[in-house]
Structure formats: C-alpha cells, structure tokens
Write a structure and sequence with these properties.
By secondary structure, the chain is an alpha/beta fold. It has a single domain, classed as Alpha/Beta hydrolase fold, catalytic domain (Rossmann fold). It is built from 17 helices and 18 strands. The strands form 4 sheets. Strands 3-4-10-12-11-13-14-15-16-17-18 form an 11-stranded mixed sheet, with helices on both faces. A 3-stranded mixed sheet has the order 1-2-7, covered by helices on one side. The N terminus and C terminus are likely disordered.
Length: 556
C-alpha cells in the first residue's frame, strides 16, 4: 500500500511538472486531475469540457449517471460538446448524448488563500436549444472582475424534458442535470480557487426560469445568490407534459406501438438526430412540467409553482429584471399577412388563463385587454409597438413583477430590480436578426455580459460602457450580494433595494437612472386583471395549502 501511494505521488508530481513546463494549469480535484490551458484574451485559465455526469445511453430520457473518477489526467481543452437539438444559427440538427460537460474560467488571482466568488451561467433557449461553449459565452468580460465563471450543458428537448406517467421518466431531466452540475461545482470548485459558499446562479430566459425552479424546489445549499434575466417560472405555462410523446415520435419513425415503455426502448436505439427530427415533424414540444409522483422516483417538480411558497428566498440575494422592449424581435419582423391573421390578444390571455367553457367571460376579458392596449383601433401592422408592449407584458414583464411580489411576500431581504433599455451594436438578438430601432429585445443583454465569438467589430464607446457597467454590477452581486457596494466613477449612483414600500429599479443605459415601478400604468392594469381572474390561472388550486420545498423528495 505504501509503495502504491508513493508511485501515485510520483505520477502526480510528474504530471504537475509537465503541466508547469508546458504552461498549462493543472488542478487536482476529488474526481481526479484536470489539465486546462491559459487564455489568450485575459489573465485567466480555462478548464473546458469536464464531464460532470453522463447520460445513460440505454435509457437516455431518464436520469443521468454520476461520472466516474478519472484514472489519468483529463485534458480539459474542448468546449464544443452540444446536447442533441436543432441549433438556432443554421437550423441544423447537431449534438451528442456525451454532452454533460462543464467549463470553468479561473482568474489568475484565484487561489486557496484567495478563493473567489463563483458566477454560474445557465443558458436559455426555451428548453429546446442551448449550449455552454465560448461561441456565445466567452468569459473575458466577467472574469476581469475577479469572479470565477462557470458554464455547463444540460439536456434539452425530448432528452431533457420528456414528461411521462412512469417512474423511469417523470420529467424535467434537464433541470436535474443542472442540479448534478451545481453539486459538482459545490464539491470541486475549491480546487480551482473558488468559494463554494459564494455561488451565484444566473441565466437568461429559460436559464433564468431554471434558476427560479431551483429556488422554488431545491432543498440543498447549492447557491447563495441568484440573477434572473427575463426569465421566471411565472412567465411560462407549467403543464403536465405529454404522456403520448414517445408514441408519436416512434410512429413518425415508422415504429407503431401503444406501449410507452416499448416506444422508449425503441427510441433509445435511434440516432438522437433522428429523434430530434421526428419530434419536430410530429409537432411534439417539450418544457418543464408537473411530475406525477412515484415512490423512490427521481421526482423534483411535483406541485405547481403557483401554489408554492418560496421560504428559501429570505436568505438569498436576488437580482432580477427584464428588457424594455422584450418581444420586439418577434413582432417587428413579422410579415404583414401573418400579423393581420393573428389574434394576439387571445393568444396572450390563453397562454396564462384557462376559462374552460366560460366563453362569455373569455370574450369579456378579451375586450377589456383590447381596449386597454389598443383603444378602438383595429389591430393592424401599424400597431406593432402596442402588440409588442402587450406581448412583453403578458410574456415577461408582469410575470417578473409577480415574482418580485412573491419574493417580497416570502420576506426576501436583499433584492435588486433592473430594466435594460440600451440598444447598441451588441444587442444579441437584434444583431443576429439584423434589426434596428426600438429598445432592448429579449436576450439582448447577453452581448454585454459575454464576449460573443462572432461579434468581431471593435466595441463602440457606448457599447464598451454598457459592457463595463453590466459586468461590474453583476460581478458585484456575486461578490458582495450588492451590485453597488460603493459609488464609483463608472456607476455614480447607489442601486436601492426593492422593499414592500418602494419598488426601486435601475434603468440601465448610458445614463443610469433610479426610478420606481417600471411601466407602472400597464402593470397596474395587469395587477387588477390577474386579481380579477386569479382562479382561472393555469395551475391554480384554491383549496390547496401553500407547500414548502422542504417537503419534496430528494434527488438522491
């Protein structure tokens, strides 16, 4: 035994010498030795593509498995893995089931003596698409503020959000992948010079919703702070899933069966690209769901969030907000013919409310919403901005502010609210769709937090200012729990917390401004509208006592 330990020590020493001599950083974690590489765009090291879990390929729609300890040094050089999906840039089907990887970006200032706060990014993409690599999420803007930046992949689409009435696949495996990643971070980030007691989870859209899910349902101490960007549970419909999904996908692939487990067994043998294509052709969609509870199952989301308190938020530092023109990318480029043929009011209402057979009430509510947003005008292409406002309010804005109220009702003590109104050359969605005019659209802020690889033009002075402001504020939240611990030349104002008495928020633009209650008139209208129709919200259960996340089955 002594000889074996001596040999192991010699091997580790040899690997360390090789790493130092080659200029590559090396870290000894609980799971083995990782070799990274130095960045070329800043003073930090990169550890890319570290497996934190693995998909069970004999049953890829179910829980992921722990990744075994590395027997030799793992070369953490490659962040190109993507989980199966139709990616958004070329609309091609890509990805592999060997995708549950994590990327860690460590400033040179990190050490065991100087552990740094950890900023964890969860990508968005409507739970259908997304990946964690530097193609979109280059870390150089954030790591310069002395925070360790972590990104990771999780399963999306059928592999991540198949929700069935069987214990093997109750649903939400993508969220459970995220929990495995957060556990990995907590257990191993210290080896990289990170402070496991100062982990901030953050995300945009579906990533923000994911973080909100973990705040609502998680029971483990995996994070201290949370940043929700245009994404909260209240902004989506959390349903019961589609238990026929495997049958429909299999049938699309010419395998007909009435047995769900048989269909799953078949689909487990099919190339994931073919599964993704068949699901799209069959019109099957996937998103977080309320899981049917099973004994000894991997359950997580078993109660509708509308009926759930969030007691944990009292001890969590929160930064939350949205952009001032959220749905502009959807409606500004919509062809006139499609615009004229759409019933935007009805789709906005039906996305949140279910009036069942009460057609009279639905008609009345539709008229009320129409009159508020459009007066007596016909809804034509000339009213795109009004449609954008309504879509933004129903889809993002009011859900975010309902979440603010819910957190306040659950005695949150440290919460900061923002609205991004800046529109420049790095607005992510507008840049990708070649849109001009208007304010900040959904996901536009990503270009100011991350060094997106294909945005190669030098930053304009105003874009650089917004990059500096946003990364400074976001990193300060991760470091101190306060985005403005002190007034500075860059941010010459204090960002006040949201309280029950005053809903302060900061408007992020080249000139920072503190105000209260964003879009007050529109939000006040929707406050009354939701109060009037509370019992018709999808998932509302008036007879059920609010539950605590502490009662939920552990994932172990």
């Amino acid at each position: 035994m002594i000889l074996f330990e001596l040999l192991c020590a010699i091997v580790i020493l040899k690997q360390h010498i090789e790493a130092v001599s080659s200029g590559n950083p090396i870290v000894n974690t609980k799971l083995g030795i990782m070799r990274g590489k130095a960045a070329t765009d800043g003073d930090y090291n990169m550890f890319l593509g570290i497996p934190y879990a693995k998909v069970n390929k004999t049953y890829p729609f179910g829980p992921a498995l722990p990744y075994p300890r590395f027997e030799s040094t793992f070369d953490a050089y490659d962040d190109s893995a993507i989980c199966p999906q139709t990616e958004e840039f070329n609309h091609t089907i890509v990805g592999t089931l060997d995708c549950l990887h994590i990327n860690i970006y460590v400033p040179d200032s990190a050490s065991a003596q100087n552990p740094l706060p950890v900023f964890v990014w969860i990508y968005g993409g409507s739970f259908r698409i997304g990946f964690a690599g530097r193609f979109l999420y280059g870390p150089s803007f954030l790591v310069r503020h002395d925070v360790i930046v972590v990104t990771f992949n999780y399963r999306v689409g059928p592999y991540g959000f198949m929700c069935l009435d069987i214990p093997e696949v109750p649903g939400n495996e993508g969220l459970k992948d995220q929990i495995l990643a957060l556990r990995w971070i907590k257990e191993n980030i210290g080896a990289f010079g990170g402070d496991a007691a100062k982990v901030t989870i953050s995300g945009n859209s579906g990533g923000g919703m994911s973080a909100d899910f973990h705040l609502h349902y998680g029971k483990e101490d995996l994070f201290k702070r949370i940043i929700l960007q245009s994404g909260v549970i209240a902004a989506i419909t959390v349903g019961d899933g589609d238990p026929t999904a495997p049958l429909r996908i299999a049938d699309q692939l010419n395998y007909t069966t009435n047995d769900v487990k048989d269909a799953l067994s078949y689909l487990s043998t099919v190339n994931p690209h073919d599964v993704i294509a068949a699901a799209e052709e069959a019109g099957v969609t996937f998103s977080p769901c309320i899981e049917k509870e099973f004994t000894n199952a991997n359950n997580y989301v078993t109660v509708h969030p509308l009926n759930l308190d969030v007691p944990r938020v009292k001890d969590i530092d929160v930064l939350i907000g949205f952009n001032n023109d959220e749905m502009s990318a959807v409606y500004s480029s919509m062809p006139d013919a499609v615009f004229a043929a759409s019933d935007f009011v009805l789709s906005s209402i039906n996305g949140i409310f279910d009036f069942g057979d009460n057609e009279e009430r639905l008609t009345q509510m539709r008229e009320i919403v129409t009159h508020f947003y459009f007066g007596d005008e016909d809804i034509t292409a000339e009213l795109r901005q009004q449609v954008t406002d309504m879509g933004s309010d129903f889809g993002v804005n009011h859900g975010t502010l309902r979440t603010v109220k819910k957190y306040l009702d659950n005695e949150v003590e440290n919460m900061y609210l923002y609205v991004l109104s800046y529109s420049g050359e790095r607005n992510f969605v507008k840049h990708r769709l070649n849109l001009t005019g208007g304010g900040a659209a959904h996901a536009d802020e990503i270009g100011y937090l991350f060094d997106i690889s294909y945005m190669e033009k030098p930053l304009t002075p105003d874009d650089q200012l917004i990059v500096d402001i946003m990364t400074y504020l976001w990193a300060n939240l991760a470091k101190y729990g306060n985005p403005t611990p002190a007034v500075s030349e860059l941010v010459p104002i204090e960002w006040p917390r949201v309280t029950k008495e005053k809903w302060h928020y900061i408007d992020i633009n080249t000139e920072l401004e503190v105000s209260t209650r964003p879009f007050h008139d529109r939000m006040a209208f929707l406050d009354l509208f939701f109060k009037k129709n509370e019992q018709f919200q999808r998932g509302y259960e008036p007879e059920q006592e609010p539950s605590s996340a502490q009662n939920f089955t552990d994932l172990d």
